Amino acid sequence: MARSFVQLSMDERRVIARMHEKKISQAEIARSLRRDRSTICRELRRNFWHDREFPAAEGYWHVTAHDMACARRRSYRKLRRDPLLCSAVIEQLKEGWSPEQIAGRLRISEGPARLCHETIYQYVYSSEGHDQQLARLLPERRRKRRPRYARKPKSLIFPIDCAIGNRPESINSRAEFGHWEADLMIFRKEHGSANVATVVERKSRYTVLFRNNDRRSKPIMSQLIRHLAPLPAQARQSLTFDRGLEFVSWRELEKGMGTAAWFCDPQAPWQKGTVENTNKRVRRYLPPETIVLDISYQEIRLLCERLNDTPRKCLGFQTPKEVFSQQLMAMES
Questions:
Q1: 177 neighbors 201 (Cβ within 8 angstroms)
Q2: Is the domain of 85 the same as that of 103?
């Protein structure tokens, strides 16, 4: 049976403060305290003291950290300690109020109760809130809450300059050769995180498939470079992706082979319709219940050949392989 989590003690926080001051790694601190590394990482992130007026006072101080942790737990328990307040909050959630509206209303009311909207969110996503299905009452519903300090603006990862709305018309109309679309085909979670990448040239519909053992971005980009780099530069001018986190290392394409990247709008995978259509074709041979790790590289290569040797109506019943070869020959002449 798994050991339940025990809150960090003052003595443990004192050890963390001393070792952190000596710039000892979080992994080493975790080993010395016989704690999980994520516990140390979370502790330093949540209870690090920030002071805008006196930046020199910033740091991880064990007494301050312990007080911050205790205050957070007291705040979280406020709705558990006060059944009337808890019932009132739940009624307002049922009326469609957001936690911020509830907390703001309490601040201007005459009653003594005060709540932070963060406390309401924590209760909603706690085990009690889950049992009462309170998350369904929120204006924006999620199964699980995102980590509060892990929300990063995606505009920095996927710049507006690379948005699909700025993609040249010559690419949109398929008038120019050498522009690709890419996507990942995901399979049943119980079979692991292995997946298959689909890469399709927009004009010829020529398809490249390769297997990935997980969804880490850098290995996926390395595989993309390995498959496309042997082509002439004009045959690999750009790639269009959705905004999945598996594509955050897209800058490796520019460094590795000078290929530009374009990104669909949020929640709009249909904007890369060529690869989405190709995925449907591949699913005939690799349905969601496929165990990807059991598929050999030879089988994937044969599947690519089958797709590229199949006549397509949109190509005047030529095959993608024929059109792709014609385009390459035209570039050389």
A1: yes
A2: yes
